Amino acid sequence: MSANQSLSLRDRINDLQAEYIRCIDHDELERWPDFFVPDCHYSVTTAANMQEGLAAGLIWANNQAMLHDRVSALRNANVYERQAYRHIVGQASISATSTAGIPTETPFIVVRIMHDGVTQLFMTGIYQDVFVETEAGLRLKSRIVVLDSSRIDTLLAIPL
Amino acid sequence: MSANQSLSLRDRINDLQAEYIRCIDHDELERWPDFFVPDCHYSVTTAANMQEGLAAGLIWANNQAMLHDRVSALRNANVYERQAYRHIVGQASISATSTAGIPTETPFIVVRIMHDGVTQLFMTGIYQDVFVETEAGLRLKSRIVVLDSSRIDTLLAIPL
Amino acid sequence: MSANQSLSLRDRINDLQAEYIRCIDHDELERWPDFFVPDCHYSVTTAANMQEGLAAGLIWANNQAMLHDRVSALRNANVYERQAYRHIVGQASISATSTAGIPTETPFIVVRIMHDGVTQLFMTGIYQDVFVETEAGLRLKSRIVVLDSSRIDTLLAIPL
């Protein structure tokens, strides 16, 4: 994550999205919380829940420390170690910037590769993000991961 | 769809592609025709048909009014309401611009999410587009959707 | 492949990635070696092999002439003619440029469309690339294709 200020906002957002999924797909989860500001929001929910106005979601964190806790729990549980993931993110739709940050929406696909080599389409959805500028470059103030399907694999353990 | 002229042509094309699929995936089909100029061409065909020089295609519209008609027909038929779609578009290949417009080719993948949550790879192909500049920003003068597979689902009802 | 020097490095890399997959997906394999410099490296391996430090890989070429030979062999064998492929590449992660070139890492998905129209997720992985500047524009000095799955289809014949 470079803090290169000479790139356009769009390029910097694309950069951060590329680095974020690279962090997860390389299983470097310990640096996943670094993409967020300390006072952040992260949640995973479904499109159906969003339509019904249910805010709770499947996964929910209200600050960066909770993200670190989540990674520690995953490392101890080791439930996910026998799969690999491959994310592809599309182009971000960038809304008008306000003092509260830069709202964007970005579609994604996640493919899961099982230990025996079977490759399957795992899940799809959108990232509803709010980015903010920090001294270290762009960071996520908020990421709501909205999954298209409500049929959630109980192995949903890795960050999305 | 902003008319921001300070972005590069490439960024503006990426913007429009992102907004186009967002419109469809959010089921906001009523504004789908707005991505086209009034005197536009839109068709859906297959790679096999293209190779054989068959121009007819599966779906065909020769102006923006026909696109509005298509959306109305879809809303009345309601055949598609029990699925959701997720498009991912790749990078556009942009050809040399002429007075007739800006020809580009962009690959895409569409995933379908059934009402019971089953997620499947639905179709793949390329957008063969010609963009033109208007007072409101870039618009599609022509979009030919070339599907890779000739095994077309009879439910092919949403715009692509 | 234009040598347009007015675009940003990022845009030029995106351009080349788009043209590269377009060349393959349009079955124009004869110009595939042109994306490389004469003194190039190209190999295909798996994530598991990389982790174990096995350099050999599944496919290996040490200069552009070997790439031409590979295409000739494919054309004579015709083993792949009854499938089509659709690549989607994500955003490139671009590392710091050195005199040796521009290292990047780019995720990809390949979908295979069989002659009977069946569409399946074929493989996923990353391109570990080193680009260099030439008089004709950016070219690949090195591409290591790292596949996520070790279950490799014996039909793996087309360039990736």
What report would you give on this structure?
Three copies of one chain form a homotrimer. Chain A is α+β, with helices and mostly antiparallel strands and 160 residues long. The first copy, chain A, has a single domain, classed as Nuclear Transport Factor 2, Chain: A, CATH 3.10.450.50. Helices cover 22% and strands 39% of the residues of chain A. Chain A is built from three helices and seven strands, in the order αβαβαβββββ. The first copy, chain A, has helices at residues 9-25, 47-51, 64-77, and strands at 36-46, 59-61, 83-89, 93-94, 102-114, 119-134, 137-147. In chain A, strands 1, 2, 3, 4, 5, 6 and 7 form a seven-stranded mixed β-sheet that branches. In chain A, 38% of the residues are buried. The model of chain A is unreliable at 1-5 (pLDDT under 50). Chains in contact: A-B, A-C, B-C. The A-B interface holds A 8, 10, 47, 88, 90-94, 105, 107-109, 121, 123-126, 148-151 and B 7, 11, 14-15, 17-19, 21-22, 25, 84, 86-89, 109, 111, 113, 116-121.
Overview in brief:
Chain A is α+β, with helices and mostly antiparallel strands and 160 residues long. Chain A has helices spanning 9-25, 47-51, 64-77; strands at 36-46, 59-61, 83-89, 93-94, 102-114, 119-134, 137-147. In chain A, strands 1, 2, 3, 4, 5, 6 and 7 form a seven-stranded mixed sheet that branches.
